[in-house]
Each structure stands twice: as structure tokens, then as C-alpha cells.
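hey team, just a heads up i'm posting the complex here instead of the shared drive bc the drive is being weird again. everything in one block, sequence lines first with there labels, then the predicted structure for the whole assembly after. its three chains so it's a bit long, scroll down
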Amino acid sequence: MSSFGLAKMSLRNLFRKPATKGYPAVPAVFTERSKGTVRNDMDTCILCGICQKRCPTNAIVVDKPGGTWTVNDFDCIQCLSCVRSCPKKSLTMDPQYAAPAGEMSAVTLCKTNEDAQE
Amino acid sequence: MDKPQVFIDIKPSELAERVQDYCERGWRFVNLCGVTVEGGVELIYSFSDGYPLENLRFVTDLSEPIDSVSTRFPNAFFFENETHDLFGVQFAGISIDFDGEFYTVSIPEPMRRHDG
Amino acid sequence: MAERSVIPFGPQHPVLPEPLHLDLIIEDERVVEAIPQVGFVHRGLEKLVEKKDFQQFVLVAERICGICSFGHSLGYCETVEALMGIEVPRRAEFLRVIWHELSRIHSHLLWLGLLADAFGFENLFMQCWRLRERVLDIFEATTGGRVILTACKVGGVEQDIENSELAAIVEDLNGMRAEYDELLRVFLKDRSVKSRLVGVGHLTKQQAREFACVGPFARASGIEEDMRLFGFGAYDALADFQPIVSSDGDGYARCEVRAREVLASIDLIAELVEKIPDGPFDQKVKGAPAKGSYAVSRLEQPRGECFYFARGNGTKFLERFRIRTPTSQNIAGMVHTLQGCELADVPLNVLTIDPCISCTER
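-- predicted structure starts here --
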């Protein structure tokens, strides 16, 4: 039986840097593999539509005739199914989370390199 | 090591006798699982004694209530109530009988439909 | 004869992270009977196998519960692999077990923290969760996710961990061990912990057998049963695995079993990292589960034995997938321990089985 078992640890903690970070003043640290948002390099994308088929939440829509590729970041669950199945490796996972927004919106990318918000 | 995959087909009437046997040998009740099949619901009872695992299976046509095993294995009440709510299988003499109030389901017997 | 009254306990209660309702029939301050009720978070995920194909369902399986997420994806994959007769590469089996043991460490630290919080030891609670954070950091560095790992798939794992990274994990865990030892001393020796836990919710070995309890709950009552003993996956590579058992059967014993399992898991990971073979980490999966094929599998989750059942129907959708979680087994035992206990001990008693209601209701 003992008491004050945590006294040493508590004293140590008094003189240590806090275990938490002052987010958002201090930016969050991401690792190489952290998951955030799906990005597409439209120069290498061939609009094959495999990512659309693999996506478990139907967050990706590929319009081949129109030449557009759309992802809804609010539906995306960051499972990486699309990134892993991409034959041209044009899809990548960016560690940065999707920014908070008042309304859910999708990001549409065009084959002509003009980004447009829908 | 391979996982044990022992499935024993029995008749519904044999269940009580088998359960009695497991109870006397000191096995424990592991699971009761329903599967929708043509002509009713297939019930799979699993019993285990450490590593060995045996599964009894039979098909019920839902016309008659199944005798509850919860008098011998108290933890079975959870699964019998669940199977009653999701598959519509009637059980007679569950130790804690919720009488269809175990889960709140918006459509009756949701697991028996295939249309979703 | 004292008057009887009924006190509703839950579904919202400070000690419960998840909704579980108990009707406590009490006489003075003593509980005579407790009637459990669940069903507040039933989501019907078992039904979803008809909508998601067997490779996509891994993602649903790991979202069943936030704490056991890796365990559920592992159990699902093992069941489907048994159904289809897939041999998993040896390296993948090791990686799976390493992640699984890491999730055991984080689950137990979470529980120890919650327990400390339940008996009012806030400082201890914070220290436990701070240590747990380091395990989550390891998860993020190796898989990219902190809670939902998306690391397991049918036929192997999604990504490799380099051998140098594995060595760094072991080093990190050994660094954690020094701090954890201090906490362990408090959990096992401190007067206030003991006075709150010793003798609470006593369950004998025979009762634990009768109520078919599993996991640390059963092991605290002296039942030497641990699915890891039976060597699924990479557990058969372990030289000498002994389950941690206590014979006291009260709340203190359950705390002791879980607290010691954290250390055992750290040792286990170190041993696996030493023995991990090189080679591929996944395998292409072709075809679909055959019509009328059955498979069951069991594995030891942080909370106890978890049972999985799957049935194929020849298409890429499974006919039926069933998960029986440790908590649904332990509820009957928990209700028994509540009978005759003081009303003030009820929250602690409920907590000592480590209830996980979202797993239970799926």
C-alpha cells in the first residue's frame, strides 16, 4: 500500500513542456502517410474511371466526354482505394485536411487545367 | 494452426439433447447466428471449450417456436432476443425476454428481406 | 423488509462512454436485480454486406467500433480468407499482429484511464491518456490514420512497415515502458485505488465459466483462456506465450490483468519485430467466395474473444456476415456481479467489463 505514487511524475510535469500543442497557433504535424484530401494531377490523368468504380462512398465522379474529374471531400473517407488503384499514379493523398466549410461542395478539375469550384 | 471449421447438421428436435450434452461436458455457449435461406431461417449455434469449437446448424421454417437455451447458458438471452428481432424467429422461455423490444427497428424482421 | 425501488441507470451516465441502460431494482442501498437493455445505437451493419462487396466491406468492418477498429478488420479478413482458402504471406501475418497488439495497448490504456476517472483519480486518467497518445502517433506514422487505420485487406495488408521503422517502434515502446511502470505501480499499489476496487463485483471461476465470460473479465476470475494461445496468424511464432491470469475475480484483479497485459503486449511486439521475415506483404485475390461456403474464426480482441461467421453465395457479395463481440458475452456475467452490490459500486462494476456497446450492437 502506498500513497502519492504519482507525486514524482506530477512534479516532473510541472517543469516539462506541455504534452499538447497549441493548435491552431502551432500548426499540426503530419507524417508522410497522414491522410487528408485526395489530389489529382490532371496532366497525367487519363479519365479511365477506375477510381470512381473503386470508391466505396461514391465520392468521385469522372466525366469522360466532358473531360472533368470531381471529388467531394466531404464524402471521402480517406481509404486510399482510388490512390492505390490508379493506373497512371496521378492520384495522391495530401496530408492536409479539407478546410471546414459552411456548405458541402465538390472540387471539379478539368482536363484543360482550369480548376473550377462547383 | 488451422482454425476449426466443424459444422454439424442436426434436426430441430435434437437441439435440446445436444445442448444438454454440451452443458454437462462444461462447454460454453459462443454464438447464435441466423442466416436467411430459402424456406426459413438457418440457425447456427456455436459451442466452445477453449480451442475446440463446434457449430450446430438446422433450418427452421418459423412455424414453431424454438426452445430457448438460455436456461442452461444464461448468456444466450442476448442472442435469442436479437435473432427474434432481426429474423422473426420465435423462442420459447428466454430467461430475460424483451418480447421484441430488444432493438428498435424501423421495419420488422429487417434481416429477412433481401430487397433492402 | 425494506422497500424496493427501481433506479434507471444510463443510457447517459458519466461513467459510460456509450449508451447502455440498466434497470436497477434496489433494496435500501443494495442492488437486488439488474435488467440490462441495449439497442440505442444499433446500425444494422451486418446487413450492409448485401450492399458492399467483400473487398470493400473491410472498410465498414473497421468502422464498427473506434477502439477495436483494427481487430474487426483483421477478424473480417481472416474469416473471408478462410472462406476462400487464401494463404496470407507470412510478413503480412506478422504486421497484422503487430498492429493488433498496438491496438491492445491503446485500448487498455484508454480503459485504465477511464477506470481512474470513474473512481475520481483525474491525474492518473490524464497520464494514461497521454501515454496512449504515443501509440496513436505510431499508428499515424505507419498507416496514416490514428483510429481508422485502413491497414488490413483481404489477402494481406495495405502497406509495409520498413524494418527500420519497426525497430523505431520497439524503441518508442521501450521508452513508454519506463513511464508506464510508474503508472502501473500506482494502479497496483496505491491505497486509494485498492480501497475502491478490492472486492468490487466479485465473480468466482465457476460463475465465470457458467456465464461464458471471455477476455480479461474471465482471466481475472482464473480462467486461463486466451485465443492468442491457439496460435492464429503470427502468434504461433512466439516462443512462450502465457496468458495473464489472476484468481481474485474482483475489480482489482480485472484492473491488474489489463494493466499487466500492456507490458506483455510490448514484449510481444519486440519479439515479433525480431522474428519478422522478409517477403511480400499482400497477395492478389481473385474470384469470389463460393456458394454455400461457411467459415468461422475467432480472435482475441482487447476486450476478449471475438467470433466471426461468414457465408458466401458465389457472388462478390457475402450472403451473411456475423460478428459476436466480447461485450455481448460478458453482459450476462456483469449483470450477475451487480446483484448484491452497493449502488455506489454499480458504475465501477459496469466499467470493469470494459463494455463496448457500438461493437455489441453493430
